[in-house]
Design brief:
Chain A has 177 residues and is an alpha+beta fold. Chain A folds into two domains: 57 residues, Arc Repressor Mutant, subunit A; 100 residues, Glutaredoxin (3-Layer(aba) Sandwich). Chain A has eight helices and five strands; from the N terminus they run ααααβααββββαα. Chain A has a five-stranded mixed beta sheet with strand order 2-3-1-4-5. In chain A, a hairpin with a 5-residue loop joins β2 and β3. Chain A is elongated, with a radius of gyration of 18 Å. Chain B is of the alpha/beta class and 631 residues long. Helices cover 38% and strands 14% of the residues of chain B. In chain B, the strands form five sheets. In chain B, strands 2-1-3-4-5 form a five-stranded mixed beta sheet, covered by helices on one side. A five-stranded mixed beta sheet of chain B has the order 11-10-14-12-13, with helices on one face. In chain B, strands 8-7-6-9 form a four-stranded parallel beta sheet, with helices on both faces. The longest helix of chain B is centred in the first third of the chain and has 20 residues. Chain B starts with a helix and ends in an 11-residue tail after the last strand. Classes of the chains: A alpha+beta (177), B alpha/beta (631). Chains A and B meet through α2, α4, α5, α6 and α7 of A and α2, β8, β10, β14 and α17 of B. The complex binds flavin mononucleotide. Flavin mononucleotide (FMN) binds next to β9 and α20 of chain B.
Amino acid sequence: MPLETEARAQIRAIVAEFRPEHGDLLAAMHQVQHHLGYLSREAMEVIAEQLGLFPAEVYGAASFYEEFRFTPPAQTNIRWCSGPACRLKNGGGIRDALLATLGLHDIPGDTEDGRVGLILGQCNGACEIAPMVWLEQHSTHRVEFVGNLNAARAIRMARTLRDGGTIEASIEEAHRA
Amino acid sequence: MPDALERYEALRASANAAYAAWRSPERPRIDVAIDQSSISNGALRTKAALERVATERNTAVDFGRVHGYGMQWVHPTVQITFPDGATVLYGPVREADAAAIVDEATGRWGAAAALRLGTITGERAGVPSIRQHPFFALEPERRLLKNLGLTDPESLDHYIARDGYRASARIFGRHLSEEIVRNTLNEAGLTGRGGANFPAGTKWGFLFGAPGEEHYLVCNADEGDPGAWVNRVVMEGDPHLLLEGMLIGAYGTKSKAGFIYLRDEYPLAIARMEAAIRDAEAAGILGDDIFGTGMEFHLRVIRGAGAYVCGDETGLLASISDERGMPRVKPPFPAARGALNKPSNVNNVETYANVPLIAAHGSDWYREMGTKAQSGTKIFSFSGDIVRTGFMEVPFGVSLAKVLEACGGIADGRKLHAIQPGGPLGSLVPASALDKLVLEPASFLPYDAMLGGGGIVFGSDRTNVLVLAEMFAQFVEEESCGRCTTCHGGNQRKTEIIRRVMDGDGRRDDEPNLMMIDRTIQFSNCAHGQLSPKSMRNVLQHFHAEYEAAMRGEDATLSLRGATRFRVAQPRDPRVEEAVAICPVAAFRGTPGARSIDDATCIHCQACTDVAPGAVVREAKPAAPRMVPIG
Ligand SMILES: Cc1cc2nc3c(=O)[nH]c(=O)nc-3n(C[C@H](O)[C@H](O)[C@H](O)COP(=O)(O)O)c2cc1C
């Protein structure tokens, strides 16, 4: 038995309420990611033990879903809405502008310094403010909605975050005429 | 045996008192609409501002909460309920409007006159009923949405006071057999709202007859189609309606436990459903001893994690059962092997939500709405290039042209170009079909199209239909579970070809190849693969001239990369330097006053035309002699 590290004990406490063969895997993974920001190898091993699964089964399931990540999240994530109402209003151009501004090749991706990430968003039915993105900060569990964008606004918003600006400052840039 | 109805009447008495006090409050109350759309529009900031003003002034006003009424384009909205029970709707109410709203509520009637949208209930001189707003012209009566604006969605009392849970108390009191419950649904003509349109009562019968004691009743709340937020409105707006539908379902299928599989993108719906379950358990409506009858039904919310194919019922059941959420071949059907490998029944949120209404009012009442082929009402969400984005509940069979009219038509003086019903597995229908389409599944079939779960997106002539086709091609490719090569490989190839055509590099054999890929993908195991080629097929069927034009490098909508370029039209306009500064790829060449754009560097993001419209323009690419390679 490997020594119980502090991190392991912490994860064990996070998933203590979950049971095998009870449909708890998704909930356990959500709970860990909520607290730690991602699913570490260690976390998946602990979840596996707790639920009577092999770590491969946990990783196999986790990697199936868009929402689970295996590395720490960027300080701020820009979640780009991929929905149709946004696309009709140049959502595609906004995506390309964000990628270029952040120097990324694809979604999901993080800037090298870990400041800003760009992740895929799905329509949740606030299409009256299309095109939109969400700004998400794991450390504070904060989510902001930034709508009525265009490519220029999105670039100003992303530049502000990229250059170390706050969420507030970036939203202000997005809404500047 | 204790009488379930007596238990219900006891709950009802206290609920009535609480609701009466809420409907006719001692002092005016401001209810802020709190739902995912209004929050996205800043409703929480509006609410904080209203509370700040009220505190600063120490005014005699209370605060509460409702769900938005459907008019999302004027979000955030608030309602004021006056002591006489009249309720007026206002919007959009921004932080700066807080003082006017508080004044209007507390004696300075008229302070917020400019923000009034209409009365929700009761009368106020000079304020029309909201029902007269053109957006609601096609809603003869709200059934599924009857509680919106008239209850706090987080209040069990309010739901009960408006007749909620009475039908289920009658049923659990054994005043109706399981079979009668199921037959009533079939007589009403209730079919699945998740897409496949299967009779609900019949499906319940499969689980009822399944062996063993462990039956699971499952709700498909994955609502993965972008552009559809029908299920969200039910769960955020009237969560107990879904719970009651499932409670009756538990009775009709002999299920003691159930799951609501709810997509992660709906955090507020998750919170409201979980709270509603807790409240119903505490009241003895769910749990171990339903209405004192000794019968049990335990419900849990399972939070999804962003996988579209988990909306397919077999993918969903795998996902609940701790596995990768991959769809599988049927049979076995869920009634044979479902959640945790036990017999199960899966229905969509809206399917369940109809059940309490039918149980309360009967099948004849239900059939008053809709058509012969498709009875009842349905919630639809409308978005895209329209003036009024929002949701409404209409009887099946209303004309789509009238719907577009209710939505204020196409915005910015543009023309309707494409209609997109049914999400990524749905369709692209040309504007010319508008006058022939009614909101009923059969109406879409002649166009090789599908009405689907309730999301309808209207696209204008500002966007080439290939832009939407590419979007859905990428979507179905990324969301393919990977089990069938036909689906994951076929959709990759399809996406590549569409992109090539959009970029002006189309080949002559692309069309036959697309058709071959289409035929091949249809051999995939599940409906995700089988339906995934539909939108591109629709392009070739209904928008062939547009496809052909793209092959020639032409595009009347000026939205395709391969057919357009960006050009500095007025080099001396000072805004051009703003365009230079905003360009994320430094595509501008030359010096101030003599700028040009390098088309090879430009990514066509439109930031330059955003900041310097007119000075920088997007225009058709000059025709260049072009070879069309054979293969
Ligand atoms: C890829 C795919 C995604 C689906 N997504 C949903 C969904 O989000 N919601 C839903 O109710 N049904 C969805 N369905 C249909 C379900 O498989 C199933 O038919 C439905 O949940 C049955 O409920 P109903 O009979 O009440 O319609 C989807 C099907 C496929 C193939």
